[in-house]
Amino acid sequence: MSHTPSLAIYGGKPTRNTFLPYGKQWIEEDDIRAVVEVLKGDFITTGPAIQAFEKKLAQYVGARYAVAFSSGTAALHAACYVAGIRSGDDVITTPLTFAATANCILYQGARPIFADIDPVTYNMDPAELERKMTARTKAVIPVHFTGQPAKLDEIRRLAKKHGLVVIEDAAHALGASYKGRKIGGDGDLTMFSFHPVKHVTSGEGGAVTTNRRDYYEKLLQFRSHGITREPAKMREREGPWFYQMQFLGFNYRLTDIQAALGLSQMNKLDSFLRLRRKYASMYNHAFRNKKGVTVPFQPEDVQSAWHLYVLRLRLPELTTDRKTIFHALLKENIGVNVHYIPVHLHPYYRRLGYTEGLCPHAELFYREAITLPLFPKMSEEDAQDVIKAVNKVIQYYSVRGVNGGC
Ligand SMILES: *Cc1c(COP(=O)(O)O)cnc(C)c1O
């Protein structure tokens, strides 16, 4: 039947000999030196490296304040706390995200409400957000899925009208911009993650940026058990040793060791972003007019940070399903992935009463999505291998006629 080379899944030669992961950190000698310097110094937790890292991040995104946390999840939890989310509240988010986004709502005893995605942008649909709002709605957590900013103007307008706090999950969006402004620079509260697959890493780590002084001070206090040592914040002061625990916080501190790595990585963020954009545009160019697949939608007024490159399969134009194509690409030694299983379909959420059919656009997207490898340390040849493998596999499973037989 075909002039296409035999797929590795059927015993053919794989497109490449070594496995290409979907994402990976890039640590160099200068990063290592920065960490070792801290280890030799006086502080290994909450010292000068934390402050320098926070300052660098705040400056980069254009926010007044940044507070570092032990993970992105901890950062998001803190943002939910300072936004005043508590038992009895509803918080609207997207189902197309990592479980942590909705889990943080549950940590606060509130109820996650899932607003379906826009089937074109894959981000939260503002019309769905409005449809899901009730008197109980306290906040909205949009996720800038894959690094492409959500429709912030619409979301903020609705939030303002209904008195909601907007907490942006920008775990994918460090360096992205919306209408000329960096994500994290002008929101109420914006969360970032420094997990190794994200744009810059501190091993584990996260941060919240904000322009509000009251949020900033509460975030700092939440990070350390709700404890303050500042005389101005206490009614009495029994002596120089005195501190007070004023609300229930956590130990969510990042170490200085990690902050040194994060700071060193921040110096490379723009070059990392350039490489991500270069590989993403190679993929866009290769797959734009290809039968059987849809490339990511790119609005005019936003610049994606390209954390992920998600190719969407057009299943009616293909003779098989996502699972087979996924397997076939793995056998070609291409480390594909799937982002995301809609949060409400996980067993824990089903036990809470969420059911299939709640967000049909996200559920359909899940059956058609494949994440291709995208990280700054990959080479142009690696990206070419991905393109070759996708072409080979999609060609093989194309409905003849639809693909013009070529
Ligand atoms: C990575 C990620 C998180 C959580 O960040 P951690 O640092 O892993 O805790 C939250 N939301 C999204 C969308 C993420 O991708």
Automatic annotation (TrEMBL):
Q: Which PANTHER family match?
A: DTDP-4-AMINO-4,6-DIDEOXYGALACTOSE TRANSAMINASE, TRANSAMINASE
Which Gene3D superfamilies does this chain map to?
Answer: Aspartate Aminotransferase, domain 1, Type I PLP-dependent aspartate aminotransferase-like (Major domain)
Which Pfam families does the record associate with it? DegT_DnrJ_EryC1
Name under which the protein is recorded: UDP-4-amino-4, 6-dideoxy-N-acetyl-beta-L-altrosamine transaminase
Residues annotated as coiled-coil are none
Q: Which UniProt keywords apply?
A: Pyridoxal phosphate
The family classification in the record reads:
Belongs to the DegT/DnrJ/EryC1 family.
